[in-house]
Amino acid sequence: MNNHRIIPIIAALMLFASCEKVIDFDPSSTQSQPVLNAIPSAGKQLFVNYTYSRFFLDTNNIHPIADVDMVVTANGTEYRPISVEGCNYFFDYTPQEDDQLSIRIQSAAGNVSASTYIPRLPNISTPYTFIRDSVFKTMVINFNIDDHANYNDYYRFTISQRDSGARYIPYRDIYDTIDTVRNTIFFCFDRGITDPTAAATEALGGYLYQELLTTDKLIDGQNHNTTMMVILLRDTNEVGTFLHEYSLNVETVTPERYQYLQDIANATSITQLITEPAPVYSNVSGALGIFAGNARRTFPLYSIVNENDTTRRHK
Amino acid sequence: MRRLLYLLCLLLIPLAAGAQLTVSGTVTDHSSGETLIGATVYESASGRGTTTDANGRYSLTVKGKEALLRVSFVGYETVYDTVKASQGRNRNYALKPSIRLQEVVVTAQRVQSRESSQMSAIEIPVEQIKAVPVLFGEADILKAIQLLPGVQSGNEGTGGMYVRGGGPDENLFLLDGIPLYNVNHLGGFFSAFNADAVKNVTLYKGSFPARFGGRLSSVLDVTTNNGNDKQIHGNASIGFISAKVNVEGPIVKERTSFCVSARRTYADLMLQPLVRKMATDIDGKTKLTAGYYFYDLNGKLTHKFSDRSRLYAMFYMGDDDAYTRVRTESSLSEDQYLDFRNNWGNTVGGLRWNYELSPKLFMNVSASYTQYKNKMVVGIDKVTPRADGTEQTSTVDGNYLSTVKDLTGRVDFTFAPNPNHSVQFGAYYTQHWFQPSVISGSIDYFDSIQMNQSWKMDSTITEDTVPAGEWVAFVEDDWSINDYIKLNYGLHLSGFSVGEAFYPSVQPRVSGRILLGENLSLKVGYAYMTQYLHLLSTTGISMPTDLWVPATERIKPMTAHQVAAGAFYTIPMVVDLSVEGYYKRMSNLIEYRDGATALGTSAGWEDLVCMGDGWTYGVEFLAQRTFGRLTGWVGYTWSRTTHLFNREGQTLNGGKPFPAKYDRRHDISIVLTYKFSDRFDVSATWVFCTGNTATLAMQKYSVAQENPEDYENRQRMSNTLSHVESRNNFRMPNYHRADISVNFHRNFKRKNCHRTINLSVYNLYNQRNPYLTYTSSDYTYRGYNRALVQLSIFPILPSVAYTLYF
Question: Would you say residue A300 lies in a domain?
Fold first, then answer.
């Protein structure tokens, strides 16, 4: 190393040298709280997850609550759990649209209660989908929503993507077989449906979502046509025959879950890094979490097969 | 309103009392002609006196036809003068530096006066500021001010000054009477005030005189040098990261003078070899240029038309510039260029005419312009050549600009009708232009094989420029009721018009002093303040990306009531002691809603914020020694600051009170300078403060899942929520640090030339103070561990600076 470089390097090390120190933190300064999570869904067997929250430095996963007396009341009929797996309590009850539900729990963690209903799902036309191959290969999805008149609908739109096949992992130099489902990012250019307060990132003249949360304020009682778009990015690490299956999920949620999902979107967004951590909404008395009804319809979209040259990876 | 005016008229009646002999003039430094601010002109027979104003002028009216005046200023020889009515009304005094006193005094003036009616005001001599050891040996006004009781700094590495529980936007920084919007360089490590260009610094923490307004928590009034009107002088300094030069002198001797100061950091140039090497070490194909620098340029021109008339012209430019340029040649033969540049700073200019209308009445007429801008530019160019000679190119450009501009016209008067009154009154109008953000971007894509695959997109998102007008009228009187009681009272009237909204404000100000003997005085004060500007700050700390926005029809101006009381005691020739308590109640504070951030754009910012209230109270102790070989002060502050956002639809923290970001219970500072000889002095500081508050989610729990098996993946971040029990529920570890500096002075044989070598050590005992905290996770052979980790940025840092005075 040239001598003339030593001085600036020493200067830089002194300027930018950082040091880390673990802060001793007493866990007893904060108390665990019971957490009730349940999303009663139309047509699906009801289950309730009931557990303790955990200290933020705690690496144990499960903190069950013992000796729980749990009762769910649906349209006046009481149900008790028929089985328990871990912290999940299963009921012999399958909710339907417009059902009224409440839950009451007694345990050493205290008394917990909440109530909700199962929202209605509007008529939704089968999506018309096509692939547009321009600068970017995109999938365009077009469908109609027949919104209920004089009924407060809270919508959640997601596009799920199931990936299955083999993928090359460069930094480990291995092939891995995967089969995962995740919500993919999509554009929605429809300002006629989007509640201005809905969380979204504006990009390229459209709005970018991983989930589109919106009310029916702008389309109440209308048969509304909307369009979404997914950019189909080709992953060069996919090997051989790789399958991407896309589905459109349309959900109606309760106002409480709508608020809960909005808070989660805020809490997990990139901007959370520079904002104050914010509390997440709960409609449960005596506990954290959410007890909120849901109705969902899923429409399969395109299944896309990528055929990559596998020999390139063996150089 | 009407009652207040009646009260004011009643109080002003005594002004009509007759006077027999009025003497006025200017007090200057004999060697440089520089006007002296705060020099005392005292009449022995009546025991009454006055001090020179920001222009070095005084006016004293006494009974009788003859007056024996004593003109004094710390560090200068006292002048005695007998003035007779027949001799004329104008008496100028040029004080000579006291050689005898310099041996035993003299780096400091008084900071708190037991005699003044003004309370919560602190004046620090620039010589004292220059003696305070700081990072890299660079004397800094704000860093010295932040060592005073009641004043806090932000985190190390972040800007901001917090006075008596107020936010960083609640301080009015005046440079020769012109507001500066951003006073931080290098994340707050240095201020925009170049100490070499500064003559006088006064901080008002409360009980504001009526001539000041527009901010809730403090006024920092900085006056720059006029320039030596007799001969060329200056100094040049080179330090660890910066170099600076200051030159002053006459253009027309004893009539027109100038003072120019410039400063620039050069760490970016020094570190360039290291930056390039680091980039080369990554893959050998990346060329990186990155750096940061700031510069300041101060200038002032003073012209004396006559003893009664002076014209001042000043300008200031200061910019911070952070830049990164990356050129990458990838293995696929793609060339990629990335440019990022962030530039922010102030541009200020002003003209002021000072004229003596009569020995009792001075006038200032001024016009000024101030601008703050923050600009970011991002550009990415990518070129992908193909074997057949064709290529694919794409260009992405993004620009962000945020500005605020003010144009102000002002006239004010100082009227001293008799020895018991000194009245200041005036008015000004400021036209603001706010442009919180202009965002523009373009994408350009071109493929030379298929000409139809050319695609271009331009987009500009511009918030309309928001004009706003602010007018102010004020009157204040410093009234000596008798030998023991003195009162400063006044009224500050203001109005702010923006869009369809107009906000008037009547702000009474009063502070009083009672002398309880030779060495003891009691003071009380009250001030009502209104602030029409807000700073949208995402993180609660001062950043260049913070946006200045005006009060609007929905977002009301901030207001504050502050009361303070204190006792001031002098142990002659030993130390000055003071204790002061205050209570301040603030309304219409704004904060972002939970989880909201504009992230550099102000679009719809009114929807993202909520308004609330706050209150703060505390006690400040100060022991200060301003003479002798040992000078300095010991300050202690106990305080508590609480915010409450519980208005309908605008709640934070569940509508419950929470501690403010910079709520600190204890704050101690010790600043000492010992002058061993004319050639050698040592300064040391030690600071301790309670850790800042932070919001820490101390519990975690699962996100509600629709399928039972989805709860199995709890380790995935997206499946876990953090539970925030309350805002600012965690307190960072306490902060403490010691700095020391040693100055070696030497006179060269050549006349009027000497040098100073400054050796300083920042963070003497290498304390790891918290900069930020984060959660760290790692997997070891013992399993999965998580810990709360504190990051510290500045270890022990020695530095050296050389200054040549000529």
Answer: yes
Confidence of residue A201 (pLDDT cuts 50, 70, 90): very low
Using the structure block, give the residue that is written with the tokens 């980039």: B279
Of these ranges, A26-30, B529-533, B591-595, B719-723, the one predicted with the greatest mean pLDDT is B529-533
Residue B110 predicted with pLDDT over 50: no
Residue in the block written with tokens 């009531």: B561
Number of domains in chain A: 2
Q: Are residues B387 and B510 in the same domain?
A: yes
Q: Which domain holds residue A80?
A: 30-117
Model ipTM?
Answer: 0.86
The whole-angstrom distance between A7's CA and the closest CA on chain B is: 8
Please report the DSSP string for B534-580 in residue order.
EEE-SSSSB-TT-EEEE--SSSPPEEEEEEEEEEEEEETTTEEEEEE
Q: What is the pLDDT of residue B419?
A: 77
Chain A nearest CA to B447, separation (Å): 10
Chain A residue numbers with beta carbons less than 8 Å from the beta carbon of B703 are 37, 264
Contacts of A277 in chain B (CB under 8 A): 695-697, 722, 724
In a shared domain, residues B298 and B447:
yes
**Is residue A23 in a domain?**
no
From B641, B577, B580, select the one nearest B614 (Cα to Cα).
B641
Work out the minimum CA distance from B450 to partner chain A, whole angstroms: 11
Mean pLDDT value of segment A27-32: 81
A309 and A171 in a common domain: yes
Instruction: Provide the domain count of chain B.
Output: 2
Contact residues, chain B, for A87 at CB < 8 Å: 711
- Taking CA atoms, B243 is separated from B739, B758, B794, B804, in Å, by 21, 14, 21, 12
How far is residue B34's CA from residue B258's CA, in Å, rounded to a whole number? 11
User: Which residues on neighbouring strands pair with residue B179, listed in sequence order?
Assistant: B174
Of residues A273 and B558, which shows the higher confidence score?
A: B558
Range of the domain at B75: 1-104
**Of B695, B698, B714, Cβ closest to residue A56:** B698
Residue B454 has pLDDT above 60, yes or no: no
pLDDT tier, A207 (very low <50, low <70, confident <90, very high otherwise): low
DSSP A311: G
CATH number of the domain bearing residue A161:
2.60.40
Mean pLDDT of B588-595: 84
Chain B nearest C-alpha distance from A257 (Å): 10
pTM to 2 decimals?
Answer: 0.81
* A163 shares its domain with A194: yes
Of the candidates B698, B711, B792, which has its C-beta nearest A19's C-beta?
B792
- What gap in Å lies between CA A190 and CA B535, rounded to an integer? 34
Among residues B88, B104, B120, the one where a domain terminates is B104
Are B699 and A11 an interchain contact pair (Cβ–Cβ within 8 Å)? Answer: no
Q: Name the pairing type of β-strands A137-146 and A201-203.
A: unpaired
Q: Give the amino acid at B291.
A: G
Q: Check residues B600 and A113 and name the one with the higher pLDDT.
A: A113
Give the residue from B61, B82, B104 where a domain finishes.
Answer: B104
Q: What is the pLDDT of residue B229?
A: 86
B772 → chain A, closest CA residue: A20
Which chain A residues have a beta carbon less than 8 Å from that of B451? none
Mean pLDDT of B646-651: 87
Q: Which residues of A are less than 8 Å from B723 in CB distance?
A: 33, 53, 279-280, 288
* Subunit contact A9:B274, Cβ cutoff 8 A: yes
Q: How many H-runs (helices) and E-runs (strands) does chain B carry?
A: 6, 50
Q: Which of A70, A91, A117 is the last residue of a domain?
A: A117
